[in-house]
Amino acid sequence: MKSHFAKWMFTFIVVVVFTAQTAWAFDFSKWDDLLKKYVAEVTIDGVNIHAVDYQKLGKDPDYRALVKDLEAVSLANVETKQDKLAFWINVYNVMAVKMVLDHYPVESIKDAGSFFQSVWKKDVGTVGGITRTLNEIEHDILRKLGEPRIHVAIVCASVSCPDLRKEAYTVKQLDVQLDDQMRTFLANKEKGLCVNRAKNQIYLSSIFKWFKEDFDSKGGVIAFITPIAPDDMQATLKNEKLHISYLDYNWDLNEF
Fold it and tell me: For residue range 146-181, what is the model confidence (pLDDT) as tens digits?
């Protein structure tokens, strides 16, 4: 009898502990499946990107179910910095796709906005019972967490954006995923980083200009990206006479 009771108690404790450790987590498995099914590597305007099949994604029942699930999600247990980063990066990417689909067809996500209200400040969807905008998710939530790598993880549905990762972000793998995103983005010469060694000149994504201050606490943009950049670019990045320019930003829709 005692043996059965002890086994029951052990099982109960394991379940309680496991539940407590995972209660915060929203199940992004639907998003993970959608990314794997509808994101593909293509070339648009000479730029290699991960593009989205918006038409098919929007018709997938899992997409509609995911949006519905986010409306009712409880945020009470999204507590730690890593929890918040993984959750809100995924949410931003889901909502950017939703903004496109809600106004489809569009040539650019910016077309979903207007002269009177930019797309970033337009209501995009409900998360945790609260109506959100892309601006709020990026600036009021994610940027305040002090992690500059978010800028290569959140994707505003455009050609020059960092690639939409073909998997959902997770707390357990977040650092690995963010490092890989930064490394991959910098290796893309058409939109991340291009180097002219002869002139000690580099061309960076405009993202690094727009969000320069987010990298200041990490020593600045150049100090931050140098050890992550491709090996053949690092010598130029370390040159004290380095000249920095910024690549034009292509806002065309990342669609195939």
Answer: 999 999 999 999 999 999 999 999 999 999 999 999
Q: Is the dihedral of CA 145, 147, 151, 155 positive or negative?
A: negative
The size of the chain, in residues, is: 256
User: Token pair of 251, please?
Assistant: 């806002």
In three-state secondary structure terms, 219 is coil
| 75 is a domain residue | yes
Does residue 249 form part of some domain? no
pLDDT tens sequence across 177-202: 999 999 999 999 999 999 999 999 99
Q: Which residue has the tokens 């010598």?
A: 235
Count of structural domains within the chain: 1
Query: Does a structural domain hold residue 231?
Result: no
d(Cα 75, Cα 84) in Å, to the nearest integer?
A: 9
* DSSP secondary structure, 33-91, as one string: HHHHHHEEEEEETTEEEEEE-HHHHHH-HHHHHHHHHHHH---TT--SHHHHHHHHHHH
Residues 230 and 77: their CA atoms lie apart, in Å, by: 38
Residue 58 lies in a domain: yes
pLDDT digits (tens, 9 = 90+) for 15-56: 443 333 444 469 999 999 999 999 999 999 999 999 999 999
Q: Is the pTM of this model over 0.85?
A: yes
Range of the domain at 30: 24-187
